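pls read this stuff:
=====
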Amino acid sequence: QVQLVESGGGLVQPGGSLRLSCAASKTIFTAMGWYRRAPGKQRELVASITRAGLPNYSSAVKGRFTISRDNNKNAVYLQMNSLQPEDTAVYYCNAMYQFVDYWGQGTQVTVSS
């Protein structure tokens, strides 16, 4: 089993920034990613990154969010800039280990004035 522990959520005003972190309990050799679920909506991919560091972004966040990864720390990060109310959601870290999908517990991000 793999534990994914997230941190960094919170309340921020529109236009503000937050940085999410996710630490895995084991070495992840595949892509890691961030998903989010907004109230009343389905979970959606925000961004993912391969072990080699190749990122992929949803169109909703491209240009505002940056995903990065530290393989030495088994960690993935999400730098979120220019946050808007529509970014309000629970954000989940995701990783696949030995062909099984693992999820973090989720961290709440609320963008409101």
The two ends are 40 Å apart (CA to CA).
